[in-house]
Design goal:
Pfam families: FG-GAP_3. The chain is mainly beta and about 625 residues long. About 10% of the residues lie in helices and about 40% in strands.
């Protein structure tokens, strides 16, 4: 998960001062900030080129001054784009170019440039013919605590605030403000007063993975009526790699600024950035210094939240789809599939859409799972849909830069069970196409890859009343015998050993989907039509004991038949003590409700996380649905 960091060049914002009291003029400051933020794009150009030669530490590329390349420009080493292809029409929906490394231009000529390698992925060696271009996604910038001005009347904090605000509004940048830095410092075990030390920056950036850091410095010019506004451009090694400055007249006055100047006490200026973060950043808020800030920072340390998704989240899966060693996230609505890079705690821009699979508007997605069942080094996407009265399974895999359908079948529902300490298990259960019978038919069985097809193998050793939905397997006693867990019709978890009931929980309501075939009535009391959500188990390194991780959706009423109206949700962790699962943790209550979840090491840091698909707005037919992915560290 951790990469070496890019050293890049950044600039700063000019400022306008209120005459007489030297108060910063906010309207003019914002205008200057926006203009200079736009100028910063020249250091991160959107170009396409090629490596033409590599000589010692120098990399020669076919981009130069005539392509608007400047000394210090950052260029990405890219792998050819992964095309996302519609499984039915074959239409290319988009492409995803993988970032292999970063180059920094050290000398720009008319038709070519010389660059040096800042970092590359493990196993990547820069060679002639490789593609170079603009850094994909947003450029990540960490804002260090502001340096107070020598002139106490100059409000350096307002300069920093304008820097953050302007860069946040620019779609090219992601800004880690002081609250983000302090949260990362807490995670790294670094004291607040050591935040800007060289060794501390390196540790903090293993979490943030910022491209570079900025630090504001504002000073009056001796014997002049001008102010020098400067930002130092720092690498994570605390090395200054450049600066941008601008002279501003003191006499420039704002059109609308009536607030008094900030108190000129240097001690206040040192502490104020923690408070100012509450203005510029979304929740969780950072409290003012006079109040304890420990709890909000711990919340930010444990949680990662995606931006709002304009969809009603339905199903979720996580796995390495491209074989590059990094996990991707597959999330679906009832009829669409979207693929994202995984989210990273402390990194705001890490969750990024890389493709969509569309064309399932006439279907209803019953399940999606991800696993490398055919053992070729990259995971397949197993998609089960309901078409009128029967079910279809389609399997997609990344080949030659595209996600292609490699196998399909009808009349089966498939799932992948992820078992702690064991390989993922593909299971399936037949379905019927006659409305005279229940949708699911026969026993749940294991499936395997025979080199050409996913074929049915032996039936699972589970009670006959269990079906494929709401089912899990795990060797909870670590004695070589797998137990089966299943949601009963009252939303209780039942644990069976050799088909004998061993333990049963109280009721915890998962997200339930009614499987309604064409021609069937939407009967909410038909318990056999309720497809319950997954059950996740994991082991924590602290004691290696088995944990059961459940979600619990909370509701106060139901207004439409078949449509539960939830008013919150939470997740719970239970520890196996040899006889039963005992509750050891309950999360805070979330505002949205959880439709699906996965317990996995999503960022491959050898610690388990829970990944939640949460609907914030989805049951109002007249408004755009909103969902969010939330990652919570379990260790």
């Amino acid at each position: 998960m951790k990469k070496r960091v890019i050293q890049s060049i950044f600039g700063l914002l000019s400022l306008v001062l209120f005459s007489g009291s030297v108060v910063l003029a906010e309207n003019a400051l914002i205008a200057s900030a926006t203009q200079l933020a736009t100028k910063l794009h020249r250091y991160f150009p959107n170009v396409k080129g090629t490596v033409v030669s590599v000589q010692a530490d120098n990399v020669f590329i076919d981009l130069g001054i005539e392509h608007d390349i400047v000394t210090g420009a950052q260029l990405a080493i890219l792998q050819e784009g992964v095309e996302i292809v519609h499984p039915t029409t074959g239409k290319v929906l988009g492409s995803y170019e993988k970032l292999l490394g970063i180059l920094q231009v050290t000398e720009a000529r008319d038709k070519f440039s010389v660059a040096q390698v800042i970092w590359t992925d493990a196993g990547t060696e820069v060679a002639p013919g490789m593609m170079v271009g603009g850094i994909p996604g947003r450029v990540k910038v960490g804002m260090l605590p502001v340096k107070p001005a020598e002139d106490a009347e100059i409000d350096s904090l307002t300069v920093q605030r304008a820097v953050v605000q302007a860069l946040q509004a620019d779609e090219r940048f992601t800004v880690f403000d002081e609250a983000d830095l302090r949260a990362a410092a807490m995670k790294a075990g670094i004291a607040a007063d050591q935040l800007i030390e060289k060794s501390s920056l390196l540790e903090i950036n293993t979490i943030l993975q910022a491209h570079n850091f900025l630090q504001v410095n504002v000073q009056p010019e001796t014997g002049s009526d001008k102010i020098l506004a400067q930002v130092a451009l720092l690498s994570p090694q605390d090395e200054e790699i450049g600066s941008v400055q601008e002279m501003v007249d003191r006499g420039q006055a704002p059109l609308a600024l009536n607030k008094p100047p900030a108190p000129p006490t240097p001690a206040v200026a040192e502490k104020t950035p923690v408070s100012s973060a509450t203005v510029e950043t979304p929740p969780p808020a950072v409290l003012p210094p006079s109040q304890p800030a420990v709890s909000p920072q711990r919340t930010q340390e444990k949680f990662w939240k995606s931006d709002i998704l304009r969809m009603k989240a339905h199903k979720l899966a996580v796995g390495d789809l491209t074989g590059d060693g990094q996990n991707e996230v597959v999330i679906t609505s009832q009829s669409e599939i979207e693929i994202y890079t995984h989210g990273v705690l402390g990194e705001k821009d890490s969750f990024r859409l890389i493709g969509k699979l569309e064309g399932f508007t006439s279907d209803s997605i019953l399940n999606v799972d991800v696993a490398d069942i055919n053992q070729n080094g990259q995971a397949e996407i197993f998609l089960t849909t309901l078409q009128t009265i029967s079910s279809d399974v389609q399997v997609f895999e990344y080949h030659d830069g595209r996600f292609r359908e490699i196998w399909s079948t009808k009349g089966v529902v498939m799932r992948v069970l992820h078992r702690p300490g064991a390989e993922p298990l593909l299971i399936g259960q037949n379905t019927t196409s006659s409305l005279a019978f229940e949708f699911l038919s026969g026993k749940v069985a294991a499936y395997g890859w025979d080199g050409k097809n996913y074929t049915r193998q032996e039936a699972l050793n589970i009670p006959g009343r269990m079906n494929i939905f709401g089912l899990a397997l795990a060797d909870v006693n670590a004695d070589g015998v797998e137990e089966s867990l299943w949601y009963d019709h009252d939303d209780r978890i039942q644990l069976f050993r050799n088909k004998a009931l061993v333990w049963r929980s109280r009721s915890y309501e998962p997200y339930r989907m009614n499987v309604i075939r064409k021609g069937e009535e939407d009967d909410d009391d038909a318990v056999d039509r309720k497809a319950r959500g997954r059950i996740e188990l994991t082991k924590i390194k602290a004691d290696n004991a088995m944990r059961l991780v459940l979600i619990n959706n909370l509701r106060s009423f139901r207004v439409l038949q078949g449509l539960p109206m939830y008013n919150g949700s939470r997740f719970l962790i239970f520890r196996w003590n040899g006889e039963k699962f005992s509750e050891e943790f309950t999360s805070e209550e979330f505002d949205g409700y959880i439709t699906d979840y996965v317990v996995t090491d999503i960022d491959q840091d050898e610690q388990q996380e829970i990944v939640l698909a949460m609907v914030l707005k989805g049951d109002n037919f007249f408004k755009t649905p909103q969902s969010q992915i939330v990652v919570y560290e379990l260790e």
